[in-house]
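Changelog-adjacent note: as of this version, every example in the card shows the full chain rather than a window. The one below runs 213 residues end to end.
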Amino acid sequence: MSEHSLSRRAFLASTGLGALAGSGLARAAWAAPAAKVGAPAPAFSATATTGKPVSLADYGGKIVVLEWTNHECPYVRKHYESGNMQALQKEATGEGVIWLSIISSAPGEQGSVSAGQADELTRTRGAAPTAVLLDPTGVVGKMYGATNTPHMYVIDKAGVLQYAGAIDDRPTTRKSDVPGAQNYVRLALASVAAGQPVKTPITRAYGCTVKYA
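Full-length structure tokens:
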């Protein structure tokens, strides 16, 4: 095996993409996502659970949070079963932030739900997103380079992507780790609201891989 092959394998292992590398479709999923921190967030439109299309452009002049989610993922469950995600949603939307939860699981894959099932999850978990968007083809997820659930993004009022990555600095499934964690999203929102640079604009998302087709 060549040195190049070993280096590539080491890189894939270190980034958690090794399991995806064997598939041409998987490689395409991660090829050059359009979203880049510090640049305008890519425009998109997806169908909400209401059946109506929702576009990023609908929220011009607003701070927007994008949350990639999969209710069956233990990492997502950590943040919902502890109430952490709901608290952050309510805190943010209470300040006028738009919160879009996005489900990019392909039909038949873990986390795939109908609009009705998604609404039931929102109700039973006491979640408070502005809208839940269904992205079964993965177009929006791949555009943003979403790799994990949860994977979080913060877009400022000018439409510039200011944060991308993990929800916090405790990459575990333990609910007991939530209280002592540094919440990157909360910090990013505070900086963006104050018109200040985000101290840590990019982090490595942790969680289950997004279940693309």
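Structural remarks: Residues 24-209 form a domain with the Glutaredoxin fold (CATH 3.40.30.10).
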